[in-house]
Design brief:
Shape: rod-shaped
Number of domains: 1
Number of strands: 0
Protein name: YtzI protein
Keywords: Membrane, Transmembrane, Transmembrane helix
Largest sheet: none
Distance between the termini: 74 Å
Number of helices: 2
Order of helices and strands: HH
Strand content: under 5%
Radius of gyration: 25 Å
Length: 54
Amino acid sequence: MAIIMTISFIIIAVVILLSVFTVNKGYQFKHTIDPIENNPHLPPEDRQKETNSK
């Protein structure tokens, strides 16, 4: 019984450590925003407005 409990605690500790590592790595990720000129999802009429407003 003690062997099963020990193995269970080791597995739980590994899962918690991997979860903390993954969350920390996600928070360290540098997000960037594309400039409006390079946005392929912008409709053509909005692109015209952006280029004319400069």
